[in-house]
Amino acid sequence: MPKRVLTGLIVSDKGNKTVVVNVERKVKHPLYGKIIRRSKKYHAHDEGNEYKAGETVRIEEVAPISKLKTWKVLDRVNTHATPDRVDVDA
C-alpha cells in the first residue's frame, strides 16, 4: 500500500526535530454544495531542524516515531519559483 503524501504550510518549528504542518483541503458541503476549506495540523519529523515556519513542504506518512508524530518531512515545495524570462519579438 503506498504511503500518503500531503502538502502543507509549516505553522510552528518550536519543537526539537519536529514541525507542525497545516494541511488545507477543499470539500463540497454535503447539503448546500458550497466549497469550504477544511484544515488539519500534523506533527512531522524534521531530523536536521532545517525547515522553518512559513515554508511549504511535502510530508509523508511513516511508522509512528512518537505519540504525535507519524509523518516526516520529505522536501520543500518551491512556491516562489519564477519562470524563465520569455522575450516576445513584436
Automatic annotation (TrEMBL):
Keywords: Ribonucleoprotein, Ribosomal protein, RNA-binding, rRNA-binding. Pfam families: Ribosomal_S17. InterPro entries: NA-bd_OB-fold (IPR012340), Ribosomal_uS17 (IPR000266), Ribosomal_uS17_bact/chlr (IPR019984). It comes from the Bacteria. Signal peptide: none annotated. One of its GO terms (cellular component) is ribosome. Belongs to the universal ribosomal protein uS17 family. PANTHER family: 40S RIBOSOMAL PROTEIN S11 FAMILY MEMBER, SMALL RIBOSOMAL SUBUNIT PROTEIN US17M. Part of the 30S ribosomal subunit. One of the primary rRNA binding proteins, it binds specifically to the 5'-end of 16S ribosomal RNA. This is Small ribosomal subunit protein uS17. It comes from Sphingomonas cynarae. The lineage of its organism: Bacteria, Pseudomonadati, Pseudomonadota, Alphaproteobacteria, Sphingomonadales. The gene is rpsQ.
